[in-house]
Amino acid sequence: MTPPAVECSFPDTHRLIPSKYSPDGTVLAQLTDKDRELRDLIELDGATNARLLGEEGLLQDISVHELLYGVVYSQIVNASFTHAAPDGGRFNSSRRGAWYAGLERETSIAEVAFHKTEQLREVDWKFEETSTYDDYLADFAADFHDLRGNSSRLRKYLKPAPIPQCYRDSQQLAVDLLMRGSNGIVFPSVRHNGGTCVVCFRPALVYHVRRAARLEIGILPEGGVPRTRVREVRLQN
């Protein structure tokens, strides 16, 4: 069953990205304080950096003509489409990424906290792990396929576990919709009860990207219900 396409307007959606990837400076600067060595590291990184390869038209599953250039935070947007996780995501494969966002910040925090908790449990980590994320806002005004209905036939795309096996049906849906020209999908958050997420398949539709805040998220995975601590920290000017 193909979900219906509906006209959507979503201002101020939230995507949390680890702050080490923000444009305050390359994370490679942590490896050396010598300018020449840093330039060599950046050049070496560029040879295998998927975003840079995509911007050179060297990736098979996303065209150079789809990516953004000359707009604020274009590198942040492009990276989300060219740096797909090895197993993909709920609505993207490992070959092509997408821009996921929550309509509310709390939804994005819950999604990030869930996946971080799973990573910590895999290595049997029992102490609080603290990471910083930057909250990027973006606006959307386009038609998206809608999974928010009560149809039982649509629920197979929103399975909570096991990961990544539970993504099999939803990834295939995304491939089919993308081939038919879909802009993306709006769907109920699987990790935040009552929350709503949007996944955008088209870089050009990720509009008016701006950085709103830096969040410090602490996660204690021990016990049946992990504890999450969130506080806002000052951005460096």
How is this structure best described in words?
The chain has 237 residues and is an alpha+beta fold. It has one domain (5-233). Helix content is 25%, strand content 28%. It contains five helices and seven strands. It has helices at 35-48, 50-55, 74-82, 105-122, 168-179; strands at residues 5-18, 99-102, 129-146, 184-188, 196-200, 207-220, 227-233. A hairpin with a 7-residue loop joins strand 4 (184-188) and strand 5 (196-200). The longest helix is centred in the middle third of the chain and has 18 residues, at 105-122. The termini are far apart. Residues 25-35 and 37-48 have low confidence and may be disordered.
From the structure above, extract its key features.
7 strands, 5 helices, 25% helix, alpha+beta, globular
Summarize the structure.
By secondary structure, the chain is an alpha+beta fold.
Q: Given the structure, what is the number of helices?
A: 5
What is the total number of structural domains? 1
Order of helices and strands: EHHHEHEHEEEE
Q: Helix- and strand-based class?
A: alpha+beta
Strand count, sense and closure of the main sheet?
Answer: 7 strands, mixed
Overall, the morphology is globular
Ranges with pLDDT <50 over ≥5 residues?
25-35, 37-48
Strand content: 25-35%
Give a topology summary.
Layout lengths: L4 E14 L16 H14 L1 H6 L18 H9 L16 E4 L2 H18 L6 E18 L21 H12 L4 E5 L7 E5 L6 E14 L6 E7 L4
Parallel strand pairs: 3-4
Antiparallel strand pairs: 1-3, 2-5, 3-6, 4-5, 6-7
